[in-house]
Write a structure and sequence with these properties.
2 copies of one chain form a homodimer.
Chain A: E1 7-9, H1 12-28, E2 35-40, H2 44-54, E3 58-68, E4 75-79, E5 91-99, H3 103-116, E6 120-129, E7 139-144, E8 149-151, H4 156-170, H5 172-176, E9 178-179, H6 180-191, H7 200-211, E10 215-218, E11 221-224
Parallel strand pairs in A: 1-8, 2-3, 2-5, 5-6, 6-7
Antiparallel strand pairs in A: 3-4, 9-11, 10-11
Helix pairs in contact in A: 1-2, 4-7
Chain lengths: ~230, ~230
């Protein structure tokens, strides 16, 4: 059965392996950053690991992210806190987890170039979805050709919650209420992920959504909640 | 045999478990941050995980760290890039991995309070070494009573390299050169960690130190290198 939304659960070991591989590519290029800037929030873990593998002491972050404008369906990338530092003599490397559309990375890179005036800026990501991204990072470890949702371990609760809500929005049967086991089957069918692979996150997501009244869960039946 | 330097290798699973536990304590207190600020570099991974567990979108970092002044033996904490943002209406939570002396966390907290003028600042760390720290974080998951070097998974290459160099500096036999196996035995004796537990990091650290000429490694003998 083909998943409706292809999801790949990424393990911590894979994150370490990919960050190490990315560091190897950067080292081989003969270039070394003086400052690593994580794109918040996705770049935090890879940026920290790259500091270790590349022996880089200076580490900062800027927050570039998609923002759904209230009145429009369209999304655009914004910088939440466009602060300035003097990076005149520095080689800066901007790090994110994945380049999907490329909007957030591009915005972060252009801002740092223009406002921090570093000697040089390069970009590095663990993954690059080449079929949809409008920019290619200077360094990447994995080129992804078919769009996939990479479920990184630092956003497991948020993603699991979103996955559950999406089923409730889009599946007729779920909307009317389903026993947990049937709901789990739909989850596995849609995302290609067994709920047991999510460990404690599955129960934690259900509990969080129940507390927020986004789902109701009584007598073993999941349905949309009061604030769904 | 008692380790000369008590080291506890921390796994990724423990980091997730501790971050989740810390998030639970914060939630129970009834307080929720609007903005999480990671202390760079140690706070990056816990800060990102806390964003997931507490559903916090805003994430930044400031770099507060120990700095050995060239002319003195004493260390002091400095802020590398004391940038400013307007956080007037925000509850800010400053996150680090561990409070050891407490200098860096205190400096970061005082700076954010004074310069960003947030509505409120609280601090949260995975661990707190209560026997040496001069401040107690508002939230912590583990109180450590006997000083231990917690070897977090995001600083494994740096720490392994430092552990090796320390043996070469302080052990007479190692200074004159030792077969790798004997060197490994000293490592295990000093740090209470088997080199096999370090996975690929052991070989990676040796290779890095050899490339930097900090060690020499020929005919299976480790000794200080030209740039030791």
């Amino acid at each position: 059965m083909v998943a409706k939304v292809p999801v790949k659960l990424v393990s911590w070991d894979e994150i370490v392996e990919w960050s190490r591989g990315l560091a190897g590519i950067i080292e081989k290029s003969g270039w070394k950053p003086d400052l690593i800037v994580a794109v918040s929030r996705g770049g935090f873990v890879p940026a920290r690991l790259l500091c270790d593998f590349l022996d880089v002491t200076n580490l900062l972050a800027i927050q570039s992210q998609h923002w759904v404008e209230a009145a429009k369906a369209a999304e655009k990338a914004i910088l939440r806190y466009p602060y300035e530092i003097n990076a005149e003599d520095m080689r800066v490397m901007i790090v994110d987890d994945i380049v999907d559309t490329g909007d957030t990375l591009e915005l972060a890179r252009d801002f740092v170039k223009r406002s921090w005036k570093p000697r040089e800026v390069r970009t590095a990501t663990l993954q690059w979805i080449s079929s949809v991204a409008k920019i290619r990072p200077d360094y990447y470890y994995i080129e992804v050709k078919e769009w996939t949702w990479f479920q990184y371990p630092w956003t497991r609760l948020e993603d699991t919650s979103q996955f559950i809500l999406r089923i409730l929005r889009e599946d007729e049967r779920a909307r009317r209420g389903l026993p947990v086991d049937s709901f789990k089957s739909i989850f596995e069918e849609w995302y290609g992920v067994k709920t047991s692979e999510l460990g404690f996150y599955w129960e934690m997501a259900l509990e969080k959504l129940r507390r927020e009244k986004k789902i109701s869960l009584s007598n073993g039946i999941i349905r949309p909640g009061e604030r769904f």
